[in-house]
C-alpha cells in the first residue's frame, strides 16, 4: 500500500490501514507534529520488520521479552545471535555457568591513558538476571552446538570515550543516578558507582508524557505502569505481535525525545557501531542473514540512522581505536536491589518481574534456556530441528491496539496466599499482626484494584494494601512492610560468583583462609577465633587478614581482638569476616594482581611515586611494608624514596607526621636490627639539614602553624645526637635559631624554649620573662597564646616540663576569668590532639610538683612562691692547687658550664699563696 508522507509517496507495506487510521486521528487533533509522529511510528515498525536480518526488540529485565525470546529461539533455531552488549565482555559469558544469577559482567580500569585522571577508577557493569531476554539468548548460544554468539555493542573503552566531559547533560553519569526509588540496604550498593550497561532502556524522556501516563493509569511510578499496560498484555502474545508492539513503543519514545541531545547522539553512534560490526561479521563469516538474530533494545530497533540494516550506508561511520587504558574483566555478585538502584527502577520491580516470569513459565509450560554444562549441550543437540520458514509480515498492531485485553479474573488462591504469607512475615519481624489483618489486606487489595480500574489486584495493589493495613507508626524490626512484600513476591535475590569464575587472587584468598574452617562464600558475618600460639598454622591466615584489612573497606574484615603495630606480636586474635557479602571488592583486587602481596606492593609503590607523594606518605608506606610484607629490599626502596621526597619538599606541613613516624621506625630498628639501615641514616641527616634551612622562615610565616614548628624543633633537638654522629654540624642549628625572629606569641614561646634547650637562654631568664608577661596588663590578654607555645614546646624540649607546669599554675591563679575561660577549650583541644606525647609528660611532672593527698594541699606552698632564705655565709674556699689556679686564670669554660646549668658564675677569692710556694 502507498500513502503520502510529507508530499511524497511512501510504501508502508502491510501497515497502510493502520497508518490511515492514525493520520485520520491526527487530523482531528489539528496539529502538524502529531501527524508526523503518528505516521513515523508506522514507518519505523515497517522498516524494522522488513529487514532481512531479523531484529528482536527487548526491554531490560522484562518477563514478556524473556518468554518471547525463549519461544522464538526454539522456533527459529538461529545459527548466529548478535547481542547488544559490550563486545569486549564476550569471554566473561563462558563463566556464567559457574554463577548463580543475578550477577554482573564488569570491566575495570585503574591506570588510565586517554581519559581524565580524576575519572579513575573506571568501572562498567552489565547485570544479568534469569528473567531477561539476554540471558535466554546467551544460554541458547552457549548450550547449542554450532551457534555463535557475537557481541556487537561498543566496547567499554568507547563507553567512556563517548562520555560527555565537563557538561551537565543527562547522558553524563548514565547509570549512576537513582530514579523512581532510592536503593536502600547493603545490597543496593553492590555495583558501587559503576556505569551501568543494559539492553533496552524503555522509558519516555518526555516528562509531561510520563506524568500524564502515571496520572491516568492511577499508578505511582513508571515500573508499575509498564507492568500493567505492557508486560501483562504481552506476556502471552505471539511473536509477531510482540515484535510490532515493542518496536512501536521504542519508536514513540525515540520520536518524543528532544532532538540534538547528547544522549541521542550517543545512542545513534551505538546503532552505527552495531550495524557496522554485524556487516563485518557477515562478510567475514559468510553466514546467511536468515539464520541470524539481532537482539537489541526496542529503542534501537526503531533506529533511523543511515547505517541501519544490511543495505544501509557503508563507510560513513568510522570506529575510533581504543585508548591504551588497560581493562580488566570479571564477574561480580549482583542483586535485584542493586539493579533497581542503578537503573532508576522502583524498589521491588525486578523481584516482581522475576515472579511474573516464573508464573508465566508455569502457566504456559514453556521450557526456558539455562546454562548447565555438557549434559544440556547433548540434550539440545538431539532436539535440534531445522529452522522454520519465514512467515510473511502481517499487521498485528491494529488488532492489538483496538482490542481490549482478555479479562483476567481474580486469582483468589494466589491473593489469599499472599495475604497469609505477609501476615506471617510481619509477625516474624515484630509486627502485632493477626488473621484480621490478612482479611483486611485481601479486601483492600480488591478495593484498590477496583478503584484503579483493574479486574484483579496486581502485586503493587497488594503491596499498597499491606502497607495500609499492617504498617504501624514505628517499624519494630529492620524491615518495613513494603520491604517484606518485596521479599514475599520474589525476594531480593543476590547472585553468587562461583569459585571457578573468580579471578586467581580471589581463589587464592579463599584457599589460604581455608584453615579457618569457615565457609567464606556465605553472605553472613562469621566470627573467626585465632589462637596463634597453640596453632601456628593460623599465623599465615592472620597475616592475610591484616593485608585484607589494609586493602579492603572496613566492613569486609574487622578485627575484634588483636592489633598489628611495630614491635607487637599478638597471641590471640578475633575477626568478623564478611568476605562473601563483599565479594565484589575482592574480585576488583584481582584486577590489580595475582596475589594480595603483589597488589599491596604495587599500591605502596604507586603511592610513593605519585604526584602528591610526600615524605610522610613514603614513611607510612615503609611502615606498611614492614608490617605486612617484611621484605628488606622493598622497604629500603621505599625509604630511599622518602629521603628524596623530604629533600624536595618546600613546606613543613607534614612535619608532625614525619617526626612521629621516623621516631617509631628508628625505635623499631634499634630494637630489632644490629644497625640502622642506610636510608634511615640518610633520612636523619637530610632532615636535620632540611629543617635547619627552613626553620627561620617557618617561624615568621603565618601560614605555618605552631604545631609544625614544634615538630621541626622536635626533629632537630631530639635527633641531634644521631645527626651529629652522621656528620651534621651543630652550628647550623644554632644559627637557624638565632636567625629566627617570630612575631606570633606562641612561636615566640617556642623560640625561647629552643634557646633554653640549646643553652642560649638561661632558665632563670626564661622564668623572669614569663613573670614579666603576667605583670604587664597590656600583654595579659595574649598570655594564653604564649602558654600554648610553651605546651607545644614539650615536643622539642621535654626537660621544660617543670617550667610549663609552673607557668600553667601561675596562669590559672592570676589570669582573669574573661581571659582564661575563652582559652580553655583551645588548651583542651591541643592536649587532646597530642595526648600521647604531651599529656604523660605534664602529668608526671605535676605528680612530682603537687602534693599527693588533699589535706596536704591546704598547707602546700608552691616551690616557685616559697620565700627565698638568706644565703649562708660562705666558708673559706680551700686552695684548689695548680688545677684551681689554672681554671681561675682561664674562667671561660667554667662560666659557660655555669650558664648552661643556670648558676651565677661567681669565683671565690683565692687564698694567699704560701711562702715559698710556686706561683700558679
Keywords for this structure?
920 residues; alpha/beta; four-stranded parallel beta sheet; four-stranded mixed beta sheet
Structure annotation, total helices = 39
Average pLDDT reading? 81
Shape: elongated
> In angstroms, what is the radius of gyration?
40 Å
Major sheet details: 4 strands, parallel
Strand content: 5-15%
The count of strands amounts to: 15
Fraction of helical residues: 40-55%
Q: Can you characterise this structure?
A:
The chain is α/β, with parallel strands linked by helices. Helix content is 52%, strand content 8%. The protein has 39 helices and 15 strands. A four-stranded parallel sheet has the order 3-10-4-8. Strands 9-7-6-11 form a four-stranded mixed sheet. Strands 13-15-14 form a three-stranded antiparallel sheet, with helices on one face. β1 (2-5) and β2 form a beta hairpin.
Amino acid at each position: 500500500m502507498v500513502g503520502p508522507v510529507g508530499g511524497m509517496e511512501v510504501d508502508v507495506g502491510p501497515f497502510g490501514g493502520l497508518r490511515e487510521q492514525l493520520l485520520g486521528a491526527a487530523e482531528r487533533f489539528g496539529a502538524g507534529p502529531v501527524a508526523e509522529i503518528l505516521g513515523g511510528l508506522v514507518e519505523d515498525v515497517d522498516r524494522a520488520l522488513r529487514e532481512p536480518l531479523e531484529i528482536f526488540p527487548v526491554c531490560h529485565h522484562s518477563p514478556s521479552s524473556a518468554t518471547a525470546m525463549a519461544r522464538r529461539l526454539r522456533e527459529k533455531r538461529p545459527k548466529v545471535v548478535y547481542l547488544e552488549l559490550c563486545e569486549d565482555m564476550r569471554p566473561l559469558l563462558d563463566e556464567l555457568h559457574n554463577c548463580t544469577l543475578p550477577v554482573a559482567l564488569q570491566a575495570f580500569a585503574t591506570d588510565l591513558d586517554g581519559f581524565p585522571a580524576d575519572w579513575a577508577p573506571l568501572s562498567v557493569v552489565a547485570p544479568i538476571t534469569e528473567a531477561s531476554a539476554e540471558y535466554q539468548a546467551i544460554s541458547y548460544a552457549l548450550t547449542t552446538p554450532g551457534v555463535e554468539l557475537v557481541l556487537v555493542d561498543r566496547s567499554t573503552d568507547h563507553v567512556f570515550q563517548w562520555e560527555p566531559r565537563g557538561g551537565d547533560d543527562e547522558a553524563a553519569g548514565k547509570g549512576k543516578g537513582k530514579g523512581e526509588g532510592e536503593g536502600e540496604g547493603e545490597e543496593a550498593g553492590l555495583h558501587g558507582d559503576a556505569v551501568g550497561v543494559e539492553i533496552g532502556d524503555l522509558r519516555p524522556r518526555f516528562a509531561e508524557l510520563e506524568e500524564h501516563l502515571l496520572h491516568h493509569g492511577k499508578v505511582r511510578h513508571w515500573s508499575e505502569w509498564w507492568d500493567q499496560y505492557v508486560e501483562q498484555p504481552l506476556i502471552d502474545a505471539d511473536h509477531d505481535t510482540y515484535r510490532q508492539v515493542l518496536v512501536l513503543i521504542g519508536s514513540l519514545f525515540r520520536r518524543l525525545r528532544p532532538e540534538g541531545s547528547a544522549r541521542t547522539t550517543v545512542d545513534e553512534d551505538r546503532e552505527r557501531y552495531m550495524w557496522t560490526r554485524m556487516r563485518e561479521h557477515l562478510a567475514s563469516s559468510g553466514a546467511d542473514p536468515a539464520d541470524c538474530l539481532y537482539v537489541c533494545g526496542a529503542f534501537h530497533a526503531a533506529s533511523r540512522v543511515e547505517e541501519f540494516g544490511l543495505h544501509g550506508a557503508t563507510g560513513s561511520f568510522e570506529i575510533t581505536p581504543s585508548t591504551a587504558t588497560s581493562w580488566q574483566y570479571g564477574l561480580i555478585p549482583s542483586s535485584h536491589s542493586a539493579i533497581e538502584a542503578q537503573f532508576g527502577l522502583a524498589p521491588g520491580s525486578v523481584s516482581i518481574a522475576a515472579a511474573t516470569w516464573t508464573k508465566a513459565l508455569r502457566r504456559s509450560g514453556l521450557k526456558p534456556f539455562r546454562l548447565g554444562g555438557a549434559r544440556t549441550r547433548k540434550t539440545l543437540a538431539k532436539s535440534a530441528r531445522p529452522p522454520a520458514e519465514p512467515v510473511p509480515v502481517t499487521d498485528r498492531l491494529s488488532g492489538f491496539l483496538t482490542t481490549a485485553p482478555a479479562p483476567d479474573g481474580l486469582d483468589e488462591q494466589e491473593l489469599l496466599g499472599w495475604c497469609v504469607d505477609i501476615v506471617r512475615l510481619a509477625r516474624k519481624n515484630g509486627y502485632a499482626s493477626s488473621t484480621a489483618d490478612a482479611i483486611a489486606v485481601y479486601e483492600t487489595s480488591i478495593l484498590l484494584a477496583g478503584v484503579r480500574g483493574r479486574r484483579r489486584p496486581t502485586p503493587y495493589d497488594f503491596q499498597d494494601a499491606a502497607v495500609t493495613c499492617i504498617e504501624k507508626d514505628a517499624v519494630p524490626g529492620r524491615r518495613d512492610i513494603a520491604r517484606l512484600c518485596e521479599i514475599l513476591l520474589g525476594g531480593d535475590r543476590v547472585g553468587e560468583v562461583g569459585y571457578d569464575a573468580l579471578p586467581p587472587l580471589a581463589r587464592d584468598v579463599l584457599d589460604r583462609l581455608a584453615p579457618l574452617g569457615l565457609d567464606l562464600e556465605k553472605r553472613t558475618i562469621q566470627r573467626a577465633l585465632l589462637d596463634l600460639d597453640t596453632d601456628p598454622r593460623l599465623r599465615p591466615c592472620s597475616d592475610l587478614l591484616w593485608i585484607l584489612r589494609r586493602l579492603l573497606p572496613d566492613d569486609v574484615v574487622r578485627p575484634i581482638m588483636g592489633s598489628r603495630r611495630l614491635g607487637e606480636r599478638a597471641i590471640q586474635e578475633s575477626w568478623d569476616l564478611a568476605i562473601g557479602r563483599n565479594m565484589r571488592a575482592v574480585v576488583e583486587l584481582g584486577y590489580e594482581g595475582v596475589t594480595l602481596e603483589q597488589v599491596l606492593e604495587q599500591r605502596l609503590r604507586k603511592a610513593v611515586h605519585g604526584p602528591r607523594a610526600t615524605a610522610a606518605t613514603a614513611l607510612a608506606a615503609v611502615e606498611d611494608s614492614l608490617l605486612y610484607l617484611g621484605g628488606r629490599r622493598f622497604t629500603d626502596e621505599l625509604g630511599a624514596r622518602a629521603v628524596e621526597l623530604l629533600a624536595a619538599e618546600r613546606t613543613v606541613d607534614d612535619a608532625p607526621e614525619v617526626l612521629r613516624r621516623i621516631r617509631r621506625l628508628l625505635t623499631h630498628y634499634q630494637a630489632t636490627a644490629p644497625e640502622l639501615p642506610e636510608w634511615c641514616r640518610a633520612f636523619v641527616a637530610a632532615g636535620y639539614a632540611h629543617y635547619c634551612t627552613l626553620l627561620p622562615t617557618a617561624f615568621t610565616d603565618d601560614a605555618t602553624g605552631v604545631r609544625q614548628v614544634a615538630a621541626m624543633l622536635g626533629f632537630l633537638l631530639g635527633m641531634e645526637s644521631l645527626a651529629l654522629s652522621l656528620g651534621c654540624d651543630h652550628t647550623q642549628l644554632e644559627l637557624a635559631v638565632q636567625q629566627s625572629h617570630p612575631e606570633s606569641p606562641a612561636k615566640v614561646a617556642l623560640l625561647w624554649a629552643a634557646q633554653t634547650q640549646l643553652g642560649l637562654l638561661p632558665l632563670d631568664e626564661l622564668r623572669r620573662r614569663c613573670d614579666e608577661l603576667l605583670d604587664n596588663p597590656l600583654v595579659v590578654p595574649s598570655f594564653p597564646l604564649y602558654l600554648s607555645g610553651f605546651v607545644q614546646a614539650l615536643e622539642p624540649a621535654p626537660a621544660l616540663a617543670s617550667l610549663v607546669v609552673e607557668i600553667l599554675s601561675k596562669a590559672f591563679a592570676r589570669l582573669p576569668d574573661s581571659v582564661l575561660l575563652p582559652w580553655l577549650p583551645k588548651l583542651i583541644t591541643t592536649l587532646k590532639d597530642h595526648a600521647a606525647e604531651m599529656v604523660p609528660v605534664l602529668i608526671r611532672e605535676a605528680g612530682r610538683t603537687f602534693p599527693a593527698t588533699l589535706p596536704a594541699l591546704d598547707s602546700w606552698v608552691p616551690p616557685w612562691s616559697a620565700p627565698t632564705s638568706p644565703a649562708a655565709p660562705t666558708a673559706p674556699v680551700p686552695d684548689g692547687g695548680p688545677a684551681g689556679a689554672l681554671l681561675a686564670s682561664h674562667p671561660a669554660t667554667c662560666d659557660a658550664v655555669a650558664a648552661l646549668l643556670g648558676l651565677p658564675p661567681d669565683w671565690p677569692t683565692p687564698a694567699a699563696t704560701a711562702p715559698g710556694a710556686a706561683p700558679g
